[in-house]
Amino acid sequence: MEDKLKIFFCEDDENLGMLLREYLQAKGYITDLYPDGEAGYKGFAKGQYDLCVLDVMMPKKDGFTLAQEIRVMNPDIPVIFLTAKTMKEDILEGFRIGADDYLTKPFSMEELLLRIEAILRRVKGKKTKEVPFYKLGDYLFDTQKQTLTNDGEVTKLTTKESELLSLLCAHANEVLERNYALKTIWVDDNYFNARSMDVYITKLRKLLKDDHKLEIINIHGKGYKLITPFADDPTREEDIRVL
Fold first, then answer.
1. Sign of the C-alpha dihedral, residues 220, 226, 232, 235?
2. Which pLDDT score is estimated for 240?
3. What is the per-residue pLDDT for 93?
4. Which terminus of the chain, N or C, has fewer Cβ atoms within 10 Å?
5. Neighbour tally for 72: CB within 10 Å
6. Domain final residue pick, 77, 93, 127
7. In the chain, how many domains are there?
8. Between β-strands 133-136 and 139-142, what pairing exists: parallel, antiparallel or unpaired?
């Protein structure tokens, strides 16, 4: 690895934490370990990181709360949650606040590494391949800045919202297959990721609600379709795709 990536790791189980830190460092990742949510918050504020791995059940401050505070400082950083919980509600709560992935203990170190690599590969690929702008009805969607602008009002999107909207725009007025979207953005098309995507579809509908010409509809058994009027303007800038 030419440029070592830096992982923010917060885990209150000292043995597990040290074991995983040593493993990740052996695989070429600089890894900073913090023993609880409060220490983690202070540490994150002082450093520059590429990805967060957070235990959910921690003293002083739980992983969900810490993730929300981290996202205030860096809205784009990927987050993986580690937890002993298996309740669907807990897992969905993690996705609602913007988790990129979720591992339930016990898990193998190799599985964690593969998920970290998949997320970082996807994030890197999105930055280099995506269309810079979409003119989406009354909205201008800036995929690089992850913003939606409508009548001068700018809304900042989360990374997941931006990635999902980019896919919908790329397949505008066509069916975006559910499994394709899940594997592209969430890596795995399991039940919990599918439920997470449903949550983000609902968020996007709310973000686009001011333009009644736009609609995201469910295609039963297949996926979603972004309904948008096409605008054929030969004078438009080449780097703006008009939908």
1. negative
2. 46
3. 77
4. N
5. 7
6. 127
7. 2
8. antiparallel
Q: Tell me, what CATH number does 59's domain have?
A: 3.40.50.2300
Residues 182, 210 within the same domain: yes
Q: Are residues 56 and 120 in the same domain?
A: yes
- Determine the pLDDT at residue 170: 86
- Is the Cβ–Cβ distance between 50 and 6 less than 8 Å? yes
What residue numbers bound the domain in which 109 lies?
6-127
Say whether both 152 and 49 belong to one domain. no
**How confident is the model at residue 24, as a pLDDT?**
95
**34 and 79 share one domain:** yes
**Count of beta carbons in the 10 Å neighbourhood of residue 130:** 17
